[in-house]
Write a structure and sequence with these properties.
Structural class: alpha/beta
CATH superfamily of the largest domain: NAD(P)-binding Rossmann-like Domain
Number of helices: 12
CATH class of the largest domain: Alpha Beta
Largest sheet: 7 strands, parallel
Organism: Undibacterium seohonense
Number of strands: 12
Protein name: D-glycerate dehydrogenase
CATH topology of the largest domain: Rossmann fold
Radius of gyration: 22 Å
Keywords: Oxidoreductase
Strand content: 5-15%
Helix content: 25-40%
Bound molecules: (2R)-2,3-dihydroxypropanoic acid
Strand order of the largest sheet: 8-7-6-9-10-11-12
Family: Belongs to the D-isomer specific 2-hydroxyacid dehydrogenase family.
Pfam family, one: 2-Hacid_dh
Length: about 325
């Protein structure tokens, strides 16, 4: 009788004390040095594995899956799963899971942090102070835009978008949004009475625009030169969603030419290698993809992924199964 446990790859370093309970079910292969595996190395390491816990850095393609006949589950700790080819997962009988919900509030907090830092020029002003340029108080020193009483625009009104909208109540803001589909009246009312508008109106009327939509081929460069040109010159743009939703080159041009006032960016095209011209701009707040990075939330994301692989190895349906069509097979 074969009593060996199924094998699981944990592709990135993450809270060993949370991973501990996986030992009851799996023989674990960890990556304590947190190296990013090349596609070839990932393929080698996944040979003979039942599953993998990963992040958005692991690309799961049809080609990779065709070389991994024993793989049963890929479980990301992220809510975004644009690194998974879901169709290929289904055709190779591999379950794909993500980690929704647990990061909504923390990510919404951070969207606000970026919006406020951008509108009130916090990092630019701090840099000015740190390099010793502050010589006197000035009536127009780092004047920015108000948050309170302004109009918040949200593109992508899923769970994170709605959590962002709810926070607007304390600031007396009006909320407008655009989404693939309009929310129900009850959802709109819970999201600080958010008003559904078309994309054009959203771009033209928002004082502060936050992007909270998932990446998909349709969302690629959904904010480009034409869209930025429609925004108010006083507006700010925040992206806590995914790189590639914004055309970074067009954004850099718009920021340089004063087409919009500023941008707060947590995600970038081709991250972590961001467009070098961002670094020369004063009217940007730049952070390294940390919107969900509170300790409690990151642990909750890891635990959500753990729950999914444990359900799979027990022969249960993982709670966050994305390719539910696999169940029919
Ligand atoms: C997510 O959960 O999608 C965050 O962006 C972290 O990758």
């Amino acid at each position: 009788m074969n009593t060996s446990k199924p094998k699981l790859l944990v592709a990135r370093a993450m809270f060993p004390e949370e991973l501990f309970r996986l030992n009851a079910y799996f023989e674990l292969e960890l990556n304590p040095d947190d190296r990013i595996f090349s596609p070839e190395e990932l393929c080698d390491r996944l040979q003979g594995k039942f599953g993998m816990i990963c992040t958005s850095s692991a690309k799961i393609s049809a080609d990779l899956l065709s070389k991994l006949p024993e793989l049963k589950i890929v479980s990301t700790i992220a809510v975004g799963y644009d690194n998974f080819d879901l169709q290929a997962c289904t055709s190779h009988q591999v379950m794909a899971t993500n980690a929704p919900d647990v990061l909504n509030e923390t990510t919404a907090d951070f969207a606000w942090a970026l919006m406020m830092a951008t509108a009130r020029r916090v990092t630019e002003a701090e840099h000015f102070l740190r390099v010793g340029e502050w010589k006197k108080w000035g009536v127009d020193l780092f004047v920015g835009a108000d948050i309170h009483g302004s109009r918040l625009g949200i593109l992508g009104m899923g769970r994170i978008g709605q959590a962002i909208a709810r926070r607007a109540s304390g600031f007396g803001m009006e909320v407008i949004y655009h989404n693939r589909s309009q929310l129900s009246p009850a959802q709109e009312s819970a999201a600080h009475h958010a008003r559904y508008v078309d994309k054009e109106t959203l771009l033209r009327e928002a004082d502060h625009l936050i992007l909270a939509l998932p990446y998909s081929p349709e969302a690629h460069h959904i904010i480009g030169e034409a869209e930025l040109a429609k925004m108010k010159p006083s507006a700010t743009l925040v992206n806590i969603a995914r790189g590639g939703i914004v055309d970074d080159t067009a954004l850099i041009r718009a920021l340089r030419e004063g087409k919009i006032a500023g941008a707060g960016l947590d995600v970038f095209e081709n991250e972590p290698r961001l467009h070098p011209d961002f670094l020369g701009l004063k009217n940007v707040v730049l952070t390294p993809h940390i919107a969900s990075a509170s300790e409690r939330t990151r642990r909750a994301m890891v635990n959500r992924a753990i729950k999914n692989v444990i359900a799979a190895v027990r022969g249960e349906v993982p709670p966050d199964l994305l390719n539910r069509d696999i169940l029919g097979h």
